[in-house]
Specification:
Layout: E1 5-9, H1 12-24, E2 30-34
Parallel strand pairs: 1-2
Length: 73
């Protein structure tokens, strides 16, 4: 589907365990960052798609500078 995946996790323990588990499973194309994902991971934007898997009280407005596909589906 893609050659690179970037994931942001706000909880340090979850970020570390996810990174370790993905590495152990051989997913070398997944890059993990421990941070608040509200602003994304700007240095690698734009992304082909952005998937939010959380329960935020609102979703930040996406711009075409962050994703090639802007909007919610």
């Amino acid at each position: 589907m893609t050659d690179q995946v970037y994931t942001v996790e706000v909880i340090p323990e979850l970020a570390r365990s996810a990174e370790q588990r993905l590495r152990e499973l051989g997913y070398t194309q997944v890059h993990t960052r421990n941070a608040d994902g509200y602003y994304g991971w700007e240095e690698f934007a734009p992304y082909d798609a952005i998937i939010v898997t959380a329960a935020p009280d609102h979703i930040p407005q996406l711009s075409s500078s962050k994703s090639r596909m802007v909007g919610a589906w």
